[in-house]
Design brief:
Isopropylmalate Dehydrogenase; about 45% helix; alpha/beta; about 325 residues; single chain
């Protein structure tokens, strides 16, 4: 039963994304069966219009062995993984692609090309990562940030991390995101830095320095997501017990939270990087095909939201 419920949540994400036209996506170094299959299947579902960037002979060899039809997909030849990352980023800079997808290369290789000061995809916003978690017995997806990019973010950097997550939630159709700034406790403690920063972030939201969501914190994990725990602790808040965005103190806490949900609670985790010119699809070699498709679906929704915002301006 839990498996069915989990699949339904990610399947709804895919269905919602398909209301938009597929997003042109530069796929960096799809040189193994897992990454190439993800791109091909996402193309079949009209989530992305992939441009495969990597050693052409190697890509075609992988496709032939895996019996994947790539005859209609554009390939940009590259010498090796570093070259693949740089050429994929260049396609975005030239507006030939409006999303970026990690293939069979290290995340550091791809992100090095993304954050290059001269040839990368930086914006004024801090780049950050979000996991979209499909947790069994939890009725809606949870967004966790940042568990993959920013190691020990400052308060200033957390402002962008929170805003990126809020913008993602809006792109996913969450009208009023409820953001919990997590710590080990729900009271401000001068000896616990994360509680001070949580309080500051909430006040910044009051002053419209962070917009588009309800914020509360510090909150411990239990009273962020459990109405019963919030009631027991006598926390009166529209966020407590009902949070759908969880902002962690640092990368270590976020990584452990996400992996605990995956390995102990059976959750699936789609991954996306925000704050660059375009959404960046980050997946793990261990991800299921549905998780990869969910990551593509989220990127499509973000790209569509960015296009809409540009049109309004």
């Amino acid at each position: 039963m839990a498996e069915t419920l989990r699949r339904e949540k990610f399947e709804r994400l895919v269905e919602r994304a398909q209301r938009n036209p597929p997003v042109a996506t530069a796929v960096a170094h799809p040189c193994d069966e897992v990454s190439l299959e993800g791109a091909v299947e996402a193309a079949k579902l009209k989530l992305i219009a992939p441009i495969l960037v990597g050693p052409e002979a190697r890509i075609r060899d992988v496709a032939a062995k895996a019996k994947l039809d790539i005859s209609a997909i554009e390939i940009v030849d590259a010498e090796h993984s570093h070259d693949s990352a740089e050429k994929a980023v260049a396609l975005v800079r030239k507006a030939h692609a409006h999303a970026l997808m990690k293939g069979c290369l290290h995340t550091d290789e791809l992100m090095r090309a993304v954050v290059s000061r001269d040839a990368g995809l930086r914006t004024a916003r801090r780049i950050s990562h979000c996991f979209i978690m499909d947790v069994p017995r939890h009725d809606k997806p949870l967004i966790i940030t940042d568990a993959a990019v920013n190691i020990a973010p400052t308060l200033e950097e957390k402002v962008d991390i929170v805003q990126n997550a809020i913008d993602l939630a809006h792109a996913m159709g969450i009208g009023e995101p409820r953001v919990a700034i997590l710590s080990a406790m729900e009271t401000v403690n001068a000896n616990v830095q994360s509680t001070l920063e949580a309080a500051a972030l909430c006040k910044m939201a009051d002053r419209q320095q962070i917009t588009g969501a309800l914020l509360d914190g510090p909150l411990a994990l239990d009273n962020a997501i459990s109405p019963e725990a919030a009631t027991i602790k006598k926390i009166v808040s529209p966020v407590a017990g009902n949070a759908n965005v969880l902002v962690v103190p640092d990368l270590e806490a976020g990584n452990m939270l996400a992996k605990s949900l995956s390995f102990l609670a059976g959750a699936d985790a789609a991954g996306i990087v925000l704050g660059a010119r375009v959404p960046i699809i980050l997946t793990s070699r261990a991800d299921s095909l549905l998780t990869r498709l969910a990551s593509c679906a989220v990127a499509l929704m973000v790209a569509a939201s960015q296009r809409a915002a540009t049109a309004i301006r």
